[in-house]
Design goal:
- This is non-specific serine/threonine protein kinase.
- Belongs to the protein kinase superfamily.
- Keywords: ATP-binding, Kinase, Nucleotide-binding, Serine/threonine-protein kinase, Transferase.
- The protein is of the alpha+beta class.
- Among the domains are: 105 residues, Phosphorylase Kinase, domain 1 (2-Layer Sandwich); 196 residues, Transferase(Phosphotransferase), domain 1.
- Helices cover 34% and strands 14% of the residues.
- The chain has a six-stranded antiparallel β-sheet with strand order 1-2-3-4-6-5, covered by helices on one side. It has a three-stranded antiparallel β-sheet with strand order 7-9-10. A two-stranded antiparallel ribbon has the order 8-11.
- β2 and β3 form a beta hairpin.
- α4 runs antiparallel to α6, α4 runs antiparallel to α10 and α9 runs antiparallel to α10.
- The two termini are 25 Å apart.
């Protein structure tokens, strides 16, 4: 059963979701089909709970190469329940295999659903779902490439996503949150890419009955603000053209590095109006994003074709594919099945790890000495300073302090302190991740 909604008091923020308790490796879960699964170590955390490595239950522990993951959340939470509905209806292995065979595809970018159920531990109930294990997400690759992807790669990704979206759409769903952080490479094959995170997936045509266009002020701006569709900005539920519009924005960002409205993502009305203007004059939008020699004509044609799709229309998938394939031909390339994540000339360098000034100076001192004497002296200095004793070969004047700071202005006095302080620890969270905005 879905979690029951609780009435919130007027003016109160929605209650915070509970985080799942971490289960020990070896915990066995039984799905609704009576199949048992064994948990390995947790490898990630989402808004719903934890993600564990997993395998079919056996006497051996779950290894590092486990082929499955299990998502676990407290049963009172809702995100995984919403995602689970999509997987159960559209991601069963036999459905995916049948589609691939009928459309002559070697791969399809939808993770397979293997089971789900409820699990009790310590008097608490948890919901879980078993799907294929995947690898690195494309946002990390995007950052590593200096926030620009090669044109060939972008066109290849566009073709893969068209195949994936057509499958999802034919099974009555739209994704509504396409972006690099929701695209993951296969764990075993770096040339396969999968669309994940169906927490916002919407059934636009239940039992083949299309939803009508209707704006709801309470739903305005659902999705990830920089990519979400104009329909979503206006509060209308997502449709097939919404997914394709989002794909357009993704491809433009991957090619040029930045969308024009990214400077004001805290202002959703500004972002909405900027997107509306971009659709009114796609040629001008492309000129804003690219220099004349770098402007990809196929992306403009793709956007114009998507713009012509009505809210309830079935998109012309084959025509859209031909546009991207023509783009590959223009650059004398073809989709050879290999995804090459190589930096583009002129792209930003990957962000370097932050190093404190003190650590940087100390590192430079290490590099300047090769006879080992400096290392020995440093160790003695550290020991004496830790014990509170500081010795100097001769008496020097006390350094003056900078007014208002309480810090010495003498650079030599700063170097004396370096042996006792370490640089701040680096955070593990990736930079540049798009944030979700909801009404």
């Amino acid at each position: 059963m879905p979690p029951k909604a609780k009435a919130a008091g007027k003016g109160r923020a929605p209650p915070k979701r509970k985080l799942a308790e971490e289960f020990p490796p070896g915990e066995v879960l039984t799905d609704t089909g009576k199949k048992t699964w064994k948990l390995g170590t947790p490898i990630g955390q989402g808004g719903f709970g934890l993600i564990y490595l997993a395998d079919e239950n056996s006497a051996t522990p779950v290894g590092a190469e486990a082929p499955y993951v299990i998502k676990v959340e407290p049963s009172d939470n809702g995100p995984l329940f919403s995602e689970l509905k999509f997987y159960m209806r559209a991601a069963k292995p036999d459905l995916i295999q049948s589609w691939m065979k009928s459309h002559k595809l070697k791969t399809l970018g939808v993770p397979r659903y293997w089971g789900s159920g409820l699990h009790e531990r310590g008097g608490k109930r948890y919901r879980f779902m078993v799907i294929d294990r995947l690898g690195t997400d494309l946002q990390k690759k995007f950052e590593e490439c200096g926030r620009r992807f090669p044109r060939k790669l972008v066109l290849q990704l566009g073709l893969r996503l068209l195949e994936t979206l057509e499958y999802i759409h034919e099974h009555e769903y739209v994704h509504a949150d396409i972006k690099a952080s929701n695209l993951m490479l296969s764990h075993s094959d770096p040339n396969q890419v999968y669309l994940v995170d169906y927490g916002l997936a919407y059934r636009y045509a239940p039992d083949s009955v299309l939803k009508e266009y209707k704006e709801d002020p309470k739903r305005c701006h659902d999705g990830t603000i920089e990519f979400t569709s104009i329909d979503a900005h206006k509060g209308a539920t997502a449709c097939r053209r919404s997914d394709l519009e989002i794909l357009c924005y993704c491809m433009v960002q991957w090619l040029c590095g930045r969308l024009p409205w990214e400077d004001k993502l805290q202002d959703p009305l500004y972002v909405r109006d900027s997107k509306i203007r971009s659709q009114e004059n796609i040629s001008e939008f492309m000129t804003t994003c690219f220099s004349s020699q770098d402007k990809p004509a196929e992306i403009q044609k793709f956007m114009e074709e998507v713009k012509s799709v009505g809210y309830q229309d079935k998109p012309p998938y084959e025509k859209l594919r031909s546009i991207l394939q023509a783009g590959l031909a223009d650059i004398k390339a073809k989709d050879d099945g290999k995804l090459k994540f190589t930096p583009v000339s002129g792209a930003l360098s990957p962000p370097a790890k932050k190093t404190s000034k003190r650590k940087k100076v100390a590192d430079e001192a290490d590099e300047s000495e090769t006879d080992g004497e400096l290392v020995k002296r440093k160790r003695v200095t550290k020991k004496s300073e830790v014990n509170g004793v500081k010795k100097s070969p001769k008496k020097t004047a006390r350094p003056k302090k900078v007014p208002g700071t309480g810090k010495a202005s003498d650079s030599k006095s700063r170097l004396v302190e370096m042996g006792t302080q370490t640089s701040p620890g680096m955070g593990l969270r990736s930079r540049g991740r798009p944030k979700k905005t909801s009404a």
